[in-house]
TrEMBL record, chain A:
Acidic residues bias (residue ranges): 249-260
Organism annotation: Aplysia californica
Protein name: Ubiquitin-associated domain-containing protein 1
Start and end residues of each stretch annotated as Disordered: 235-281
InterPro entries the record matches: UBA, UBA-like_sf, UBA2_UBAC1, UBAC1, Ubiquitin-like_domsf, UBL_UBAC1
TrEMBL record, chain B:
Domain B30.2/SPRY: 115-295
Keyword Zinc-finger: yes
Keywords assigned by UniProt, alphabetized: Metal-binding, Zinc, Zinc-finger
Gene responsible for this protein: LOC101858054
Native organism: Aplysia californica (California sea hare)
UniProt name for this protein: E3 ubiquitin-protein ligase RNF123
Length: 433, 1311
């Protein structure tokens, strides 16, 4: 075909070029400007490195020429077969190289599909490793981390933080204001919860319920008049309806006791070694905020009447049952567990902070952002509130100032406790689950 | 041969080898072949060749030159002085001819590979202790969660919260290691697992019994349980995971440094084989190297999972030695040719063919022999990284990176000439990956040597035209993440400590930067000790050094971009810049999305910020360059985007919102206008006729009537680029700038706390041991943290917020402002401007003012007043611009304006605007909005007033523990010091008094808003009260609390504005000749008394809400709302006096809701029991209170402390207290007289609508009657009778005279 082409279009402008093959053999050839590379290569058959036996037939020669390419030396360009050499910039007196083409070998391992199947399965591994000696197998199965009660731990942390924070804050110029506010907050709460709302009692008695029943119903129904009424109606035939709730008599003296404790606390602290000579006029007052809280909490704790009743029905002594509920913060199941267990946790320990020498305590206090928080009255307020009312934690967690701090503390706590589980929305849970 | 190569590569003292005659020539050179050959030109000239062998050519067919070169290149690689051979006639001892060259190379290569094989024989077979395919990669079928795996199956990124994947190989015997290059720095668990491990969305590597992992984000190691371990990692780190299957230990290395043995009792032995495995949380990325590439940090004794191709490497190294010898010859020849050509000045080459081949042909021929063997090797990534990149780095002079890298260029020429198509593709891709990895995962060097080396080489490669085009089209952006080249990785803490050994920080921090202008030298400036001074000096010095080095890197990056933005290399009608823009647009599109999938893939923000700054630099360079050639073009300092760009299709590469909505919508609405503005007419047959430009100029009036003439030629690639830069700032750079601010703020926090702690320590009495201990601990913790931050902040201060970056930002701000200014003249067509331009204008200002400042002072911006004034005009013009449809965008503008009004300096700018702008601003501010909340504009009005109102000078609400405001611009601003504007107050008064209609509408909507917000507020607090009385523990929805607080704040804010109006223009209430004044006064008083009674009600919802410790409602207190209500009363009744006093008193006392007790409340006086409006609850409560009183007197005393009273606040002046007292006594007096009067009114004469006032008006035509107030209020909205819905045509008083005519005049403004 190529030959016929050249016959059809007689060479118009001929050029003289030097072609060199890879063995360094030169040839000066006359080529047409409109020739394709193939045609040039064919005309240079004698430069191709093929055995002479193949050069006889045009078609073979052509086949052979496919293994070669032409490179224009001047521009460093490989000539393509699509255009004529003239179009590709070959000029008179140019030099061309006739180079061998390399076969296109796929890169090592491009054929991955097949190799994926070679991933070792268990049988292969067993076979391959059969001769090996086992090591480190004697170690006991690691237990899943013991289900630590995060709530009670949180309490301890909070207490520790409050202790630390009030120490740091007590030299603040604004300290008086801060502590006052904190105390107000604590004292206001009981005022609000102090007994039943007389209006609700009156509402029920106005409906014709006896006062003792009305009070009981309100106590059992979180002071909601509507639910109390429902309860009264459904339990009307209950013979025990007039029985007073367990613990009802107890709290009253406890209140006064607690209050005494509180006032004693405030006064008693003047003997406290902390106060010393230079404590300043208002010095002793700040330092007792935690005492106030404790006293407050002792006073404030009210066992959940239903839970207490159930525990009493199980046969536990009332005093113990109340303690148990206090330790477990009114969770009946937890209280039951506590009563049945060997009662590791003493009731008093509920009000104690972390061990000062424990790694958790040290790690928490070594954290700069925690230290920042301890210096902030607002965070102290947050700790106090959370201690008093754990449910408020969710609000403080959403707060832009205290939220990150609380997360940080929870993170430190969990990393030191070696538990992968992290309640309270620490990074651990969000990222893993 | 291999050995000789090694020797050559390693020799730094080759001068010592002089054992034969040829080698004696070595004496001339003292540089190793690996150093830059260019240098040898210089050195050579001072020395002359010592010995030259006689030229004997035994290969008859070979010409002299060829054999010279052949022997030089191939025979003795050790004597490879590239330049010597060209001058002397180097002979060949052996008969090396072109004909035998192929065989020669083959035999040499065989020799090398044999040797390599032999040395491998001694090492353990790669297969012992390992199972799996020879090539190790991630095994996609083991994927849990959603992991996107790169085509090479080594790079992975997670698209789900937690995903895990294993590799395809496992090991059971021996010591093994693999590397992970981190693309991000979040939570990842990297390590080993067995085939028994089953992972899930919850359990990843390390969470199961037989898997072990390290996580450098949480600093933990994991194996079911977790313990503290390791160092924090950064993106760009290389983590090596090493396992010793014989001992059963696992160790992790960070950047080649061991972090200690993580696990020492890994179960090994029969049945146990470990796979590399990783778990990633969302959007984390790693790239594994199991051995397909050279290990970045090889670890003694440990083998990679995939055996390195050592034979190929040895062969390639030998071949590169040949090239190393050959390249200088080729360059020399090039230079010769060039000289020759320039001498000839004719058509090149006109030299007729001579007997001999040209040198160039010979050299190329020889090179082709080398490449014949080298080319297949260049497809292997390992060889590319190990040999090609190393070789190129040797050729590239990174010290003089600006110069043309001739050697690199020549080698790339050869690659493009002698490699075949598929070979080139692989080679280029892996070359680029290697370069990027080298740049990104380099180990630390104090001089930034490695990033510099790799940048220089990348630059050299990209300067090569063919390579650049290929890379732009297929590789950069597509196969690698090009923007990473624009990023500079900040050193980690440890390395920072090496760079900046001395630490210093400013102890005299100004807490408020707005004080800065007033007090240039804070009074309590601590004097610096000499030690501190020295420290500061050293610190500053190392900072300077660091920024210098980084700046050099930055200029290299800009150069790199300039290279990609070359616009003169058109191939097939496309230039590099066109290609780059195309890719950039795709990049922007991919990064602008907010979908999760896009987030996981998008470019890291720090990278985008760097990319942005470099682009600005490169763009400005080309812009000014182009400007010098085209007179139509403005210099870059005045650049802007002309409006016509926004309606051209080229900009619409994805659907971003325009000011007027979507592009398609705008085209429908405004298509015709666009044509008119462009001077194009579409004829009836659809033919487009463009008016000749000349005609346009002549009849400028015909077009200029509606639209100004279009400026700046459109369709320029630079304008496209400018647009892209603005978009890049908008989608990424701004966010990152804001993030950086956090570090500075936290550091200031720590410094103030440290100082605080130190003061306390010095004041702490000796005997308070516990307190002391705590304080000392706190101080140490703070000190350590600040030291660390003082180093980190250097990067922020010197690199991110540097003056140079400020320049970029100022420039961008000007560009955007100018664009909007120009576009704004095109009336409706302004709607084509993309929203992000408007936002960018606001964002750049915020960034300059709040982020970069004070590190790089805002006030140092040249031409600041002008910029501020333009910005102010921009805000004033557009915050109420009806052409902007998006409410969010309007809010942004209103907020920006609010920020502007609350600093004295910026307020001044607003006050200095031209009068018409000021008036239109006030008019817009008081125009009631439809369908949207009003709060934002109110904030602005309040700003103008704050500082003048009753007890209204506070920054923090008194009696509230101040807490850190969130650093968002808006809330931050609301805590600024008051700076009232007399100017705007008087302007507002003028408008209120002069523009009747406007002021009526304003006051009406003001009071409606107040009514709404306060009732909303009361509704919520009542709910809270009910909830609080019921349940033991209060649980409130945080959203509701937010609404509650917001409603309260809005109410207070609206009241403040009423106070302002009552003060600056009391006539709108008291001048009853104004048609609605009487009505407004009555409504005002009604509102005030309602609010007062609600707030002060004993045991009411307000009091109990205030008493409850509700997080988020702490701003809801008595003070703000009572001061303002009392303030308004005092203003109208006490201060105004005269008829106003009388009218106001009357209106107030007539209102049934008013009680003097509420006034007594504010002064802390207990309500007298007799006058109190007693409800059942209050009586019971008071009785209980009395009981308590008997019970405990102390408690009562405490309560007294708690009683609210204005007198307890320092924020209220004595004068103001006196006003209130006067008000109280006056009202008490008046009340008695008025009640007497009221009784005279007969009940049947009372208005049947309000039952408060006597009937005063008769409706025409229906004849129904009401009081004046009720009907006036009705008339504000409709002219309908209350009773029969008849349309009222006029109103008469009881005597038949027409009143309130104003309401029945045809309203001209409506139609």
């Amino acid at each position: 075909m190529v030959v016929t082409d050249s016959l059809l279009f007689p060479p118009s402008a001929m050029m003289k070029v030097r072609v060199t093959n890879m063995s360094g053999v030169d040839a000066v050839a006359e080529v047409g400007r409109d020739w394709t590379c193939d045609k040039v290569k064919l005309s240079l058959e004698h430069l191709l490195d093929r055995p002479a036996s193949l050069t006889g037939l045009g078609s073979d020669a052509m086949k052979n020429s496919l293994h070669y390419k032409l490179v224009l030396v001047r521009c460093g360009k490989t000539l393509s077969n699509d255009l004529s050499i003239g179009q590709q910039g070959v000029k008179d007196n140019d030099e061309l190289l006739l180079l061998k083409k390399r076969p296109d070998v796929p890169c090592i391992g491009t054929d991955r599909q097949r190799e994926d199947k070679k991933v070792a399965d268990i049988a292969t591994i067993r076979k391959a490793t059969a001769h090996l000696v086992k090591k480190h197998h004697e170690q006991p199965e690691e237990e899943a981390s013991s289900s630590l009660d995060f709530q009670s731990e949180l309490r301890r942390i909070l207490i520790s933080l409050i202790e630390a924070s009030q120490r740091i804050l007590c030299l603040n110029p604004e300290a008086a204001k801060i502590f006052q506010q904190a105390e107000e907050m604590l004292n206001e709460a009981p005022a609000r919860k102090n007994g039943l709302a007389e209006s609700s009692v009156k509402q029920l008695t106005d409906m014709g319920f006896p006062e003792n029943r009305a009070r009981k119903a309100l106590l059992l129904n979180q002071q909601s008049v509507m639910s109390a009424m429902d309860w009264l109606l459904t339990n009307e035939s209950d013979p025990n309806i007039d029985q007073p709730l367990p613990g009802q008599e107890e709290p009253e003296p406890e209140v006064t006791e607690g209050e005494e404790g509180m006032t004693q606390g405030t006064e008693g602290s003047s003997d406290d070694q902390l106060v010393g000579a230079t404590g300043g006029a208002e010095g002793p007052r700040f330092k007792n905020i935690l005492e106030t809280i404790r006293a407050f909490q002792r006073r404030e704790f009210r066992p959940n009447p239903r839970a207490l009743q159930n525990l009493l029905e199980m046969g536990f002594a009332e005093k113990e049952a109340i303690h148990a509920l206090r330790v477990s913060r009114n969770s009946q199941d937890a209280a039951c567990d506590w009563l049945l267990s060997d009662r590791k946790e003493k009731p008093e320990s509920v009000d104690q902070g972390l061990d000062v020498n424990s790694p958790v305590y040290k790690a928490i206090l070594a954290n700069p952002s925690v230290q920042l928080g301890l210096n902030s009255p607002r965070c102290l307020l947050a700790f106090l509130q959370m201690l008093e009312n754990p449910i408020s934690a969710s609000q403080w967690l959403n707060d832009p100032e205290t939220g990150p701090l609380l997360m940080q503390i929870s993170r430190i706590y969990h990393s030191e406790k070696f538990t992968p589980f992290c309640p309270g929305g620490g990074t651990d849970t969000t990222e893993i689950s | 041969m291999a050995e000789s190569k090694k020797a050559a590569a390693a020799s730094t003292s080759s001068a010592s080898s002089g054992n034969n005659t040829r080698d004696s020539r070595e004496l001339c050179r003292d540089t190793s072949p690996n150093t830059h050959p260019n240098a040898e030109h210089v050195r050579r000239s001072s020395r002359s060749p010592v010995a030259i062998d006689a030229a004997v050519s035994d290969g008859g067919s070979e010409d002299k030159y060829t054999s010279e070169i052949l022997s030089h290149v191939f025979e003795n690689p050790r004597s490879s002085s590239p330049v010597e051979g060209a001058t002397g006639a180097a002979p060949s001892r052996k008969s090396l001819r072109l004909q035998t060259l192929e065989a020669h190379i083959s035999s040499c290569l065989k020799e090398v590979s044999d040797k390599e094989m032999k040395s491998n024989m001694t090492a353990p077979s790669p297969e012992i202790g390992r199972l799996g395919p020879p090539e190790c990669c991630f095994d996609i079928i083991t994927n849990v969660g959603t992991i996107i795996v790169d085509p090479d199956r080594l790079g992975i990124s997670s698209h789900s919260n937690f995903s895990s994947i294993k590799a395809s190989c496992c090991v059971y015997e021996g010591k093994w290691v693999y590397e992970l290059m981190l693309g991000s720095k979040g939570v990842m668990q990297l390590g080993w697992c067995t085939s028994n491990c089953r992972f899930s969305q919850e359990e990843g590597v390390g969470d199961t019994r037989d898997s072990y992992a390290y996580d450098g984000s949480r600093l933990r190691k994991w194996n079911v349980r977790t313990k503290r371990y390791g160092e924090p990692w950064m993106s760009g780190d290389v983590i090596s995971c090493a396992i010793d299957c014989d001992e059963g230990t696992i160790t992790f290395y960070r950047n080649g440094v061991s972090m200690g043995e993580a696990f020492s009792s890994v179960r090994v032995g029969a049945g146990y084989a470990y796979f590399p495995a990783v778990s990633l949380s969302f959007a984390e990325q790693v790239h594994a190297n199991f051995g397909s590439l050279p290990l970045r940090y090889p670890i003694e004794g440990y083998r990679p999972l995939q055996s390195p191709c050592s034979v190929e490497v040895a062969q390639a190294e030998l071949l590169f030695t040949y090239l190393h010898n050959l390249l200088p010859k080729m360059l020399e020849d090039d230079q010769f040719e060039r000289r020759h050509a320039s001498a000839q000045k004719g058509d090149y080459p006109q030299v007729p063919l001579t007997e001999q081949r040209s040198h160039q042909a010979t050299l190329t021929l020889i090179a082709s022999h080398v490449f014949q063997r080298l080319a297949p090797l260049l497809k292997i990534p390992y060889v590319i990284e190990m040999c090609l990149v190393k070789f190129l780095l040797g050729l590239c002079d990174h010290h003089d990176w600006r110069a043309e890298q001739l050697y690199v260029n020549k080698l790339l020429d050869l690659i493009w000439m002698l490699l075949q198509e598929p070979e080139i593709r692989d080679c280029m891709e892996h070359l680029m990956i290697s370069l990027l990895n080298g740049y990104r995962f380099h180990s630390f060097h104090p001089e930034f040597k490695y990033p510099k080396m790799f940048l220089a080489l990348t630059l050299a490669v990209l300067r090569h035209q063919k390579s650049r085009r290929h890379l732009l089209t297929y590789i950069l952006f597509d196969r690698v993440k090009f923007p990473v080249f624009m990023h500079i990785k900040p050193p980690d803490d440890a390395n920072m400590a090496r760079l900046i050994p001395n630490v210093w920080w400013d102890k005299n921090l100004k807490k408020d930067d707005d004080d800065e202008d007033e007090e240039d030298s804070p009074p309590e400036a601590q004097p610096e000790t000499p030690e501190e001074k020295l420290n500061k000096k050293k610190y500053m010095l190392s900072c300077d050094r660091l920024s210098e080095r980084v700046e050099e890197l930055e200029s290299m990056q800009v150069e790199l971009l300039k290279c990609l933005l070359i616009n003169k290399d058109s191939i097939e009608g496309k230039t590099s810049r066109d290609c780059f823009l195309e890719k950039l647009k795709i990049f922007l599109k991919e990064n602008s999305g907010f979908s999760r999938a896009q987030m996981a893939q998008s470019c890291a923000l720090p990278v985008s910020l760097c990319f942005f700054h470099r682009l600005v630099q490169a763009l400005r360079f080309f812009w000014d360059d182009f400007c010098s050639t085209d007179t139509n073009f403005l210099p870059s300092s005045e650049a802007f985007t002309p409006i016509q760009c926004f309606w051209s299709d080229s900009r619409d590469y994805f659907e971003f919102l325009r000011c007027g909505g979507l592009m398609s919508h705008l085209n429908r609405q405004l298509g015709g206008e666009v044509n008119r503005a462009q001077g194009i007419e579409v004829q009836e047959d659809g033919k487009v006729v463009k008016k000749a430009m000349m005609a346009l100029k002549d009849t400028a009036a015909s077009v200029g009537e509606d639209y100004p003439r279009l400026e700046m030629p459109s369709g320029n690639s630079l304008q496209d680029l400018l647009d892209a830069v603005v978009l890049l700032y908008h989608i990424a750079a701004h966010k990152q700038l804001g993030k950086m601010c956090a570090l500075r703020e936290s550091m200031q926090d720590f410094i103030t706390n440290l100082q605080d702690t130190e003061t306390k320590l010095s004041e702490c009495p000796e005997d308070l041991l516990e307190v002391r201990n705590h304080l000392e601990n706190a101080r140490n913790v703070f000190l350590e943290k600040i030291t660390e931050q003082a180093r980190q902040i250097v990067w922020v201060n010197r690199i991110i917020y540097s003056p140079n970056k400020q320049k970029d930002m100022v420039w961008l701000m000007k560009v955007v402002l100018k664009t909007v200014e120009k576009a704004s003249k095109y009336q409706k067509l302004f709607q084509y401007v993309p929203e992000f331009y408007i936002e960018t204008a606001v964002n750049t200002f915020n960034a300059l003012r709040n982020y970069l400042h004070p590190t790089t002072s805002f006030h140092a911006i040249p031409d600041l007043p002008n910029i501020l004034s333009r910005y102010a005009s921009f805000l004033v013009d557009h915050f109420f611009d009806s052409r902007i449809v998006s409410n969010d965008l309007k809010d942004t503008l209103v907020q920006a304006l609010a920020c502007f009004t609350c600093y004295p300096d910026t307020l001044k700018i607003l006050e200095d605007l031209p009068m018409d702008r000021r008036i239109s601003m006030i008019q817009s501010l008081i125009s009631p909005y439809e369908n949207r909340s009003w709060a934002h504009t109110n904030w602005i009005l309040v700003r103008i007033w704050k500082g003048c109102g009753f007890g209204y000078r506070y920054r923090f609400l008194p009696n509230l523990i101040p807490h850190k405001a969130q650093p968002t611009e808006f809330s931050y601003v609301s805590l600024q010091k008051p700076c009232p504007s007399q100017e705007f107050q008087s302007l507002l008064a003028k408008i209120l008094l002069d523009e009747e209609a406007r002021s009526t509408k304003f006051l009406d909507s003001l009071m409606n808003q107040l009514n709404w917000s306060f009732s909303e507020f009361v509704g919520i607090i009542q709910e809270i009260q009910t909830l609080a009385s019921r349940t033991e523990s209060l649980l409130l929805e945080s959203r509701q609390i937010k609404i509650c607080a917001a409603c309260f704040e809005i109410s207070v804010c609206l009241l403040r504005i009423l106070e302002m109006v009552a003060t600056i223009a009391p006539q709108v209430f008291t001048d009853w000749s104004r048609p609605s004044a009487e009505l407004f006064l009555k409504r005002l008083m009604q509102l005030l008394s309602q609010i007062m009674s609600r707030v002060t009600m004993k045991d009411g919802a307000f009091e109990s809400t205030v008493a409850l410790p509700i997080q988020g409602l702490d701003s809801v207190t008595f003070y703000p709302i009572l001061t303002v209500t009392v303030g308004i009363m005092a203003q109208l009744i006490v201060r105004c006096g005269g008829s106003s006093q009388e009218k106001a008193t009357r209106s107030l006392l007539r209102d049934s809701g008013f009680s003097v007790d509420s006034l007594k409340f504010v002064l802390g006086m207990a309500p007298s029991v007799t006058t109190a409006t007693t409800t059942t609850t209050t009586t019971t409560m008071t009785t209980t209170a009395e009981k308590e009183k008997d019970k405990d007197k102390d408690k009562e005393k405490k309560k007294a402390d708690k009683v609210f009273s204005f007198k307890k606040f320092d924020d209220i002046s004595q004068e103001e207290i006196e006003d209130v007292e006067k008000l109280l006594s006056y009202l008490s007096n008046q009340q008695s007289t008025l009640t007497a009067e009221e009784e005279n009114v007969r009940e049947e004469d009372l208005c049947t609508i309000c039952y408060a006032n006597p009937q005063q008006t008769v409706f025409v035509p229906c004849g129904h009657r009401t009081c004046r107030t009720c009907i006036t209020q009705q008339l504000l909205s409709k002219k309908e009778c209350f009773f029969c819905i008849a349309t009222i045509t006029r109103l008469n008083d009881l005597k038949g005279r027409q009143i309130l005519r104003e309401y029945f005049q045809p309203a001209p403004q409506k139609k």
